Each structure stands twice: as C-alpha cells, then as structure tokens.
Transcriptional regulator, contains XRE-family HTH domain
Amino acid sequence: MNNEFSGVGERLRQLLKKNKLKQVDVCYAAGISKNAMSNYISGNRVPDTKALYKLSKVFTVSMEWLLTGDENVTTIALGQTEKSMLDLFRGLSHEDREEIIMLIDLKYHRSRSKKGNK
C-alpha cells in the first residue's frame, strides 16, 4: 500500500465512530461491497477514485481529507453569482486579472477599516 495514503483506514474508522454507523450501513449508502470496505478500513487497500468519491459523499468530507488527512483542503460550494464572476474572471488577460485582484483587495481592506471604526 502507498504510505502516502496509509491513514485512510483509520480516518474511515473515525468517521464510522463519529457518525455512529456500521460498516454495512456505509456499504449500502455508498454502493461499496462489504469486502472492499473491510479492506479499506484494515489498510489492505486504498479506495479507488469511484469508491473514494462515494465515501466522501456519504461522510460529507473531502476526498483529499480521506486520502491524506489534510484538513487545510476545503471544498466551497459557489453560488450562481460567484460562478458567473469566476467565469468572467477566467476570460480576462493576466494583466486584467491582476488589476481585479488589486481592486478586490482594496475594497476588502476599506470595508474592514470602516467596520473597525464603527
């Protein structure tokens, strides 16, 4: 097994305990065989991409966290306005992107200082 992902089984055990679930419950919810789940938890196997995705959805954690335990990885759901802004931003040149970033930074710091003065 890849040592990079050696803690997957332990993280799955933690999630089972935290959520008060049995392996069979997760197998049913994720559509994963009992044998595969047992192998993941015992550390004999690392979940493939599809299984990892399904497990992350069942436990509402990121796939990255399941694999690595890195808690700094966050998944943020974007609203429609944010998605539209991101699409527009991606269509800009590098120079225009830099200008927008500077403008956002300026606006952010202005709003923070206004809130601090109230």
